[in-house]
Fold these 4 entries.
Entry 1:
Amino acid sequence: MKMFLKPRFDQIPEEIRETFKWAVWRAEPRSNQPGKFNKAPRNPLTGRLLNVNVPESFADFETCWLAVEAHGFTGLGILLQGNGWVGVDIDNFTKMANVERGPICEWIREALAKGAYVEKSPSGSGLRAIFRGGFPGQGRRAGSLEIYQDKRFLTITGHAIKSIVEEESNE
């Protein structure tokens, strides 16, 4: 089975820990897509699948942290709820050609300068960004870039990126 980054709970900013509702996830191979995994939100106490339309079924950060440690879940994540926060998912960043990476690197530099939290995705090859903001609609997807603000579960690793130069040198 594919290896995923072990969460670094202590690296997740306090503001993110306290702002969001949380869930755990377990890597589940997709039968129709070899090498791909589902990361669906699960209740940290029961392991049952959660629905993003039922935010009250999600838990707090500490409950999820303890469940990952005690029950072998692969990781944890947040529920975006349309409350002034945006989550960005950039798949396969480390595998992109330079021509694709250039504009993304510039955007990440700007986002970091404005206080966004940026980290490696569970696979280690993608990036996540979380920041205050908004846009019309619930979400958008274009190629390897996804951006959401409501009714979306976003995995969190705690493998924070402080600068895009750091990420470019880790390839």
Entry 2:
Amino acid sequence: MPSFEDLFLKSKGQPIQYDGQRIQMVDRFRVTTGQEIRVTFESVDSDWRQGVHLSTDGSFEVNGQTIEKAVVLWKDTAPPDVVLKVKSTKGECLVKNVWDVGDGVMHSWHGGAAMVVERSGSVRRYRCNDGKADDDFDDLVFSLHILD
């Protein structure tokens, strides 16, 4: 089993091909200021706490609150569907998977971490690996809908 961390270091963080799939550390997509996105948790198959990290150059509005720069939605505490309004001056939103091994620290981008992103119209489905060295991409599965 190759180390995804080593492969991403060699590619300088760019997506790579592995076993016929394009895998990546982070996903970037275009948004317009004020556009809403919906994150839907589908499944988790991990011993560790799993989450979704969203970031932008501006802020997010969720449940009447404004959150600057980044928001983390943990599968065990967030509702199954979360709608967020993105306020970005650059028109970009970044998404990555994160996990907590039980030490209270949010981990990402190391060990076996990688995502397969399946795109279909305005929906992106993420199949994620956390830091354990495997290649099943089922530790966290969620979708992101870019709403009009």
Entry 3:
Amino acid sequence: MNSRIQELAIQSGFKKYKNDDGLYSPYIEGYDLNDEIEEFAELIIEECLSLCENERDLQQIKEHFGVK
């Protein structure tokens, strides 16, 4: 997983495994993750917009998030 995407996921409420790069939800089974997923998406959009304000280059956004 791209490190920036992982940072945004953690910022939105997901947790990181101690000895792994994986992420998990700290909530009990059946917990509705809609708020965390929405926050995660908003953080990604905000970051994309900030890149576009400085550099209108789609390739830069792809590289920033590790999208091929």
Entry 4:
Amino acid sequence: MKKSVLFVLFLLVLVSCARKSTEPQVTDFRYGTEGIRMEFVQNLPPPRLFDREPFNVMIQVENRGTTTIGQQDGAIFLSGFDNTIITGINTNGIPIPELEGRGPFIPKGGINVVNFKGVIQSLSGKRIDKYQPTILATACYHYETVASAQVCIDPNPYAATSQQRVCSPGTISPGSQGAPIAVTSVQVDPSPGKTRFTINIQNVGGGDVFKFGGQYLDKCSPYNPGLGFDEIDFVRVADVTISGTKLAGCKPVDNQGFVRLANGMASLYCEYGGMLGQSAYLTPLNIILHYGYRQSIARPIEIRPVA
């Protein structure tokens, strides 16, 4: 009798585990400080090559953040060499393959490769004994930051009352957001009938940020004149909402919605007046930022003439 009871219990445990394993696992996917990550595939290119050989560079591209990238959202360029010695490389770049970002049910972003093919011209004809360029791969792409935090709204912070408060306004950190531009902290300053927010933004990805838009994405190429001073270090504030209510008039934002970073950082100042009741409560604050991003990786190589 005891054996049969134990056997039934064992079956129940198995069924319970099987049910749990089939349930979708929702994870906190907004973490990390990267967008795109690039790596040279091993030996492509090799450290030493010879002239009159094919020149083949393969780069693995991985989406390490939460924004899905399509082929219209960016490109990878190869530069750093004399294009009369290494010829045939597409100076228009290669579009970044479509790469899915991380999501609630997607633990890893998409991975793919891009391949550059060229030809090494004769060095002996140019009386060159050795050519040692540094191959530079540059990614230019659009990305998005979505930051969400629970903030404390206190409509009457100076009221003399014994009522218990569920929260106290202060400075909070939303944590990393799976993007190279991060909302590092939000300072909440309450006053009667109005709450003020100081939203601190920082470039944490190690690359360069520039204005969001196709015209700026084109200028990011190392083969174009380049981005101007008035186009670098700008982030577009797409949306700031409290419980679905858009906060208008955040400053300092220009008429196109851009805020400028100084030394990689910026602060937004916003106000909210739509309080509910007289007691403090928690509500979600959502911030959406759009921007262009540029980052590079390098590999030194050596080219010698064929003996």
